[in-house]
Every structure is written in structure tokens, then in C-alpha cells.
């Protein structure tokens, strides 16, 4: 009897084990099926909307079907695949395009940070920022300028290379390295990173004593609170899929064309609160000389630093968004400096920029625009700022835009709306009476802008109706020339500082200034994100929050593309080891010399820059 019961128990155990195994296997297959479906959705969006596809195929052999099959096979061969593993497959699929606009962000709370950051030069890496709160100098030997030798008991170059290999775009090596330097001490599940936790050892060479120091730090880790139920082998017959956000009611306004990646905006948020980060108010550079005017807030709340540029108190924050000053060169010239961290700006911030530019037109001999680590923004903001830096029209780049029925319908609806505006304006005596009409919610855009927009919509609709899925080369919003601003104009020499961490709008602004010989570009080649960005969301159970891709491919005046090529400086300068250790004095000296030479060459009375 005992043997019979024992055999029965064994049989039950085997059946339960087999059932559990089959259930787990079935759940895993179900999960992989859903993952492949999500990947197919992304592939379909890219096939319909990704503008540089042919360019990528011709120049690098990229083929969407090939990379899709590779990703699909990776899903199928990964045993008990987790959501995190799938998200990395999605990220690698997006990275195959070598495009800084093509990304995926995920619903995730997991993150880890260390309280410092590094920057590299000549294959060596140095501390360029220490969090004064989370790593007070009384508790640590880590200082700005110290060289980092090992990270997690590995040579730091190996760690940087590993980050590059797992998350890079293989487009601009310097930009890939710059992004890897940020990612070294800032990891996030939201961008698809493998997020570490626990303790880590780093070895540094102290800048002052040249001695080496090994110390332990702990990752500031936030766990993942957004779990995928399929990771627990739960069989769900019905998966509730909801859109991530409700659709807003369409508004009558000038279209906002984005030239920035959601990923780069996320990185900028991670760098918030410190100087020298991506999109930070202040860059990593020290003052270029003795400051004779600054718009920095003073302790007495009277804004003494704004002498000759006084503002109402409610406007102070928008004015102080800009880091601006005037400094004196040794030869007696007074040079203006203003930092443009990004192009995601409010109308009030743009207006304050114009007021500062107008003051500098009166008081300075030349202007330095610091656009280092600029992650981009909106096209109309770029054009507004560019209009304040010239007294002659600036030619804008042309784009070939990927279109579908959606864009054609938008163009049709836009043209119908413009007809209503034209009829309303014809029937009214002034813009003031227009405010009282049924179009009162519309901003008072310039009627000339409406005409340019009309031509743009007409071209999109005509090209679609003629069977094209890519438009002929056309200026964004129909604006092929950026007219000088009616109120604020800077007409004197300009030097713009650029580097490999300038993306998208940060590529295009230097291109416009260089192509029109309006500014001398100093620094390193920009990243090469060469079009505007379209983002999309879709219901899924694998944590994919949003995806983005390049919806146009732009050409400069000479026909060269910006995508993958970037914008090269007129005067190259690469950050040196001495810059990182001694506060960028070499950079400042080289830039000041370039400005001195620029003033020597500039033809007075002509706002066109003469570049040899």
C-alpha cells in the first residue's frame, strides 16, 4: 500500500512538473509572439516614414529586412527572454540605422547614478564634475581634473568601449564617445540600459599630487517598479492595451517641427542642475576675459548686473535663462558672449534673447555664441534666433520629406484653414478685429508666414498626388530665406563654438550660419543628425513608451547632407588633456586668438563673414 501511494505521489509530482514546464514554455512562446508583433509595428512605421532609408542603404548597406530578421532571431533564440532583454534588442534594432534621431524610450523606473562625470581627451579620462551634495569634498578625494584610471576594477577605456559597442550609433565616433562618457555614471532603464547596483571601485590619479587613489562608491540605485506580468510566466488570455495619451484637440497654429531626439532630451534631464551638461544653461567653459557686464543675478535683488538692461521683476527669470556677458580683450575690443543651450524655448525667452542681442549690438565689437552640447529643439525657434543675428536674409537648408496619406491630409486641411484665414483677413480692417473673430484662439502669425506655409502645403499635396512618397527638395514650412528680425539684429562679426555633442537643431544652426558666411565656426564637428524628428507611440505590453525616427533628410546650400556628416568647423579645436585638468585655459586662449584674427579680417559695414 505504501509503495502504491508513493508511486502515486511521484506521478502527481511529475505531472505537476510537466504541467508547470509546459505552462512556462507556452507563456514564453506567447511572450515572444507579442515581442515580434511589437517589432513588426516599429518596422512598419519605419518603412512608411523613415526618410533617409535609401541614403543609408547606398552609403552603409543598411537593409531594414535584414536587421529585422536578425532582431527577430535574437528574440527566438533567447531562452526565457525578459522584457529588459527584448528592450535591448529593440534598442539595437534602432541603432542599426546609425541615426541620432532613431531611438526608443521605455516605461521604466530603474536607474542608477554616481555623483560625478568624466570627459575624455587623447584616450584619457578626467573628472569634469562632482556633485557637491552627494559627494562632498570632505568625504571624498575626488576632484575636478583628477584622471580616472580604472572603473569597476577595469581600465576605463575598456568600459567606455563596451558602452559604445552596446549603445552607440556608429555615426560620429566623437559623438558616440561623448554619449558614452555621460552614460558611464548615469544609467537608465528608460533608455534601455543595463542598470548596475551595489558598490564600485574607481582608481584615480590626483591632479595635484599625481598620486593614485582607489576608492569605493555606491551606485544611487532606483529599482524597477514597472514590472511586466509575462516575466512571471503568467498566462493572460486578454491583455488590456491602451493608448499612452489622449489625443489633444487640434489647434490653429504654425506647425512645430521638432529637431531634437526624445532620447537626448531625456539625457539633458539627467544632466539638469549642473554646468557643462547636455543642454545646460552654462557650458563647461570659464569666462573668456575680464567681464565688464554680466546678466547674472546679484545678491541685492536689484539686478545690478543688468545695468543698461533693466527688466521688470516678472521678466527676470526669462532674462536670466540666458548666460550672457561682455568681456574685454587685451587689444581693447569688447566681445559679447551668449550661451544657446538648446532650441526648446518660450516666446518670452526668445524675446529676452533679442533684447540682449540688441544691447550687444550697441556695446560690443563682436559676438561669441556658445552652442556646445546643444541637443536641438524646434525649427521656428532656430529661425527666430538666426533672424536676430543678421541684417540680410539667410538661406535655409532644403529637405526631402517622407510623406504618406497622413501628411497629404494635413496639407489639405492646412490649405483649407489658410483659405479661411485669407477670407477673414480680407473682410477685416486690422489684426485687432481678427482677434474678435471665430479665429480668436489662433496666434497672430505673420501673413507672409502663412503664404510660405501655403506654398509648402501645396508642394506636399502635389507630390503625394503625383505618386511620390518623398517630396522634392523643399524648405521646412516653406521658408527658404530667414529674414532679419524687424527689431533685433546683430550685424558685427560672430564666432560660434560647436562640438560633437551638438545634435539635430544643434547641427542645423551652425550649418545655416556657415553656409551664409555669417559666423566662423570654432571647435569640433557636430554629431550629424540631419533632418527633423517624428515620434510615435503604440499599444504594447513590453514597456515601449515612444519611438522616434528621422522624417526628412536635409541638404545644405552646396548639396551636402548633414545626416552622418555633421558640420565641420572653420577652425578645428579638440579639447586637450590640459583643458580637462586646468580649466580649459588652452581652449579659451585658442578661441580668443581666433576672435582676434576674425576682427582683423572682418570687412566693416558688411555683415557677410569673409572666410579664407
Keywords:
alpha+beta, Pdz3 Domain, 2-enoyl-CoA Hydratase, Chain A, domain 1, seven-stranded mixed beta sheet, 26 strands
Explain what the structure shows:
This protein is 37% helix and 18% strand. With 612 residues, it is of the alpha+beta class. A 7-stranded mixed sheet has the order 12-13-14-15-21-22-26, sandwiched between helices. Strands 3, 4, 5, 6, 8 and 9 form a 6-stranded antiparallel sheet that branches. The chain has 4 domains: 94 residues, Up-down Bundle (Histone Acetyltransferase, Chain A); 112 residues, Pdz3 Domain; 264 residues, 2-enoyl-CoA Hydratase, Chain A, domain 1 (Alpha-Beta Complex); 67 residues, no CATH class. The relative contact order is 0.13.
Q: Globular, elongated, flat, extended or rod-shaped: what is the shape? A: flat
CATH class annotation of the largest domain: Alpha Beta
Question: CATH topology of the largest domain, anyone?
Answer: 2-enoyl-CoA Hydratase, Chain A, domain 1
Helix content: 25-40%
How many strand units? 26
Integer count of domains:
4
Amino acid at each position: 500500500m505504501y509503495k502504491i501511494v508513493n508511486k502515486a505521489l511521484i506521478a502527481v509530482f511529475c505531472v505537476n512538473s510537466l504541467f508547470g514546464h509546459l505552462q512556462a514554455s507556452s507563456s514564453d512562446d506567447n511572450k515572444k509572439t507579442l515581442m515580434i508583433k511589437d517589432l513588426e509595428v516599429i518596422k512598419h512605421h519605419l518603412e512608411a516614414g523613415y526618410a533617409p532609408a535609401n541614403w543609408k542603404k547606398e552609403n552603409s548597406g543598411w537593409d531594414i529586412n535584414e536587421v529585422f530578421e536578425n532582431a527577430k532571431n535574437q528574440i527566438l533564440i533567447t531562452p526565457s527572454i525578459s522584457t529588459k532583454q527584448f528592450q535591448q534588442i529593440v534598442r539595437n534594432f534602432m541603432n542599426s540605422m546609425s541615426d541620432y534621431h532613431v531611438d526608443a524610450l521605455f516605461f521604466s523606473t530603474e536607474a542608477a547614478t554616481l555623483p560625478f562625470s568624466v570627459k575624455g581627451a587623447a584616450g584619457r579620462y578626467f573628472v569634469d564634475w562632482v556633485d557637491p551634495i552627494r559627494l562632498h569634498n570632505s568625504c571624498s578625494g575626488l576632484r575636478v581634473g583628477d584622471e580616472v584610471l580604472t572603473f569597476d576594477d577595469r581600465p576605463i577605456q575598456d568600459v567606455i568601449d563596451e558602452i559604445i559597442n552596446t549603445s552607440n550609433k556608429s555615426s560620429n565616433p566623437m559623438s558616440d564617445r561623448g554619449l558614452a562618457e555621460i552614460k558611464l555614471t548615469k544609467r537608465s532603464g528608460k533608455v534601455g540600459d543595463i542598470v548596475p547596483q551595489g558598490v564600485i571601485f574607481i582608481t584615480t590619479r590626483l591632479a595635484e599630487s599625481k598620486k593614485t587613489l582607489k576608492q569605493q562608491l555606491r551606485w544611487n540605485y532606483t529599482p524597477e517598479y514597472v514590472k511586466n506580468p509575462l516575466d512571471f510566466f503568467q498566462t493572460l488570455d486578454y491583455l488590456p492595451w491602451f493608448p499612452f495619451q489622449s489625443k489633444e484637440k487640434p489647434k490653429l497654429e504654425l506647425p512645430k517641427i521638432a529637431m531634437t531626439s526624445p532620447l537626448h532630451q531625456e539625457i539633458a534631464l539627467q544632466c539638469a542642475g549642473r554646468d557643462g551638461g547636455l543642454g545646460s544653461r552654462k557650458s563647461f567653459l570659464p569666462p573668456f576675459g575680464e567681464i565688464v557686464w554680466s546678466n547674472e543675478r546679484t545678491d541685492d535683488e536689484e539686478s545690478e548686473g543688468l545695468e543698461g538692461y533693466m527688466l521688470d521683476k516678472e521678466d527676470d527669470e526669462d532674462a536670466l535663462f540666458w548666460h550672457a556677458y561682455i568681456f574685454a580683450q587685451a587689444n581693447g575690443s569688447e566681445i559679447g558672449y551668449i550661451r544657446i543651450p538648446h532650441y526648446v524655448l518660450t516666446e518670452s525667452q526668445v524675446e529676452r534673447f533679442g533684447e540682449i542681442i540688441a544691447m550687444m549690438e550697441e556695446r560690443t565689437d563682436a559676438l561669441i555664441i556658445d552652442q556646445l552640447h546643444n541637443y536641438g529643439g524646434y525649427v521656428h525657434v532656430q529661425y527666430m534666433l538666426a533672424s536676430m543675428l543678421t541684417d540680410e536674409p539667410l538661406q535655409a537648408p532644403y529637405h526631402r520629406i517622407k510623406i504618406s496619406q497622413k501628411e497629404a491630409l494635413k496639407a489639405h486641411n492646412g490649405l483649407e484653414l489658410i483659405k479661411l484665414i485669407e477670407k477673414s483677413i480680407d473682410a477685416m480692417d486690422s489684426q485687432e478685429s481678427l482677434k474678435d473673430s471665430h479665429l480668436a484662439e489662433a496666434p497672430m502669425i505673420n501673413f507672409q508666414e502663412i503664404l510660405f506655409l501655403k506654398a509648402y502645403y501645396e508642394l506636399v499635396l502635389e507630390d503625394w498626388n503625383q505618386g511620390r512618397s518623398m517630396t522634392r527638395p523643399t524648405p521646412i514650412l516653406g521658408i527658404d530665406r530667414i529674414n532679419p528680425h524687424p527689431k533685433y539684429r546683430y550685424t558685427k562679426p560672430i564666432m560660434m563654438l560647436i562640438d560633437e555633442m551638438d545634435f539635430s537643431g544643434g547641427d542645423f544652426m551652425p550649418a545655416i550660419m556657415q553656409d551664409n558666411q555669417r559666423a566662423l565656426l570654432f571647435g569640433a564637428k557636430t554629431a550629424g543628425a540631419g533632418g527633423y524628428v517624428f515620434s510615435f507611440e503604440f499599444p504594447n505590453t513590453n514597456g515601449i513608451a515612444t519611438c522616434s525616427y528621422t522624417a526628412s533628410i536635409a541638404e545644405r546650400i552646396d548639396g551636402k547632407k548633414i545626416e552622418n556628416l555633421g558640420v565641420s568647423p572653420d577652425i578645428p579645436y579638440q579639447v586637450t588633456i590640459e583643458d580637462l585638468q586646468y580649466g580649459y585655459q588652452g581652449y579659451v586662449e585658442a578661441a580668443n586668438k581666433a576672435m582676434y584674427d576674425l576682427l582683423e579680417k572682418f570687412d566693416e559695414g558688411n555683415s557677410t563673414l569673409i572666410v579664407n
